[in-house]
């Protein structure tokens, strides 16, 4: 760094979190396995929790990311955002201990509803409303999610009169959009706003980073609303990824109107996909519109 001083690695363990003793965790059943590790349903001194373990890619960088996500979650508290209880700070098997949400991912929950032929509009509006409330809270705390999709939402749909949805994975989230580094792709392709793509011709100027704001989450939320209405369909089935990429970027590709989709749902969903980020609504506006839908559908 030019000063001759040793570069000291930043402390990796967050300060404000309860440290959980791995011996107090009783792993019951694996819920999922991803690129970086696995998620377990476990009992922590007898209480149901979810445990996210880092496995395989357990590098200092992966650990720092896990602890970063944990610290961010620890500073947040909202009924529609997953709660974190603590961390197992252990070089070999670091893990975060979070709230267990019984239905698992909303994507799976929606698909189960579809199998059972269940599709009440009010339920779908109530599900979307909770996701919007969780996101409204994140944005109020200046957290941008960057990877909002139904796969990353958690649900409990046992009582469809009172569905529960929580923002469940903040792995890619950042405080304030300005921390975005261009060229560092964030998100999942069909859910990504056009301004997130590198080399977009209209973005090749110094303003490209300014264009990446919290409005990227609004674009993704429109995709979530489409997933919720279709009860877990995959957007653009069969379309090659490079065509999805090009289509989103030049504005020619947006999900088509699901058969049976009502105007009032379209009127909330479509503005989320505006090319111009500033033209997209806020989560407060979306939540208020969805709140009215829940009432109308009742
Ligand atoms: N899958 C991933 N995280 C989960 C959680 N917190 N609860 C239930 N299933 C999950």
UniProtKB/TrEMBL annotation:
- Domain Protein kinase positions: 25-294
Q: Which residues bind ATP?
A: 52
Know the name of this protein?
Protein kinase domain-containing protein
- Organism name: Apatococcus fuscideae
Instruction: Tell me the stretch of the parent sequence this chain holds.
Output: 588 to 885 of 909
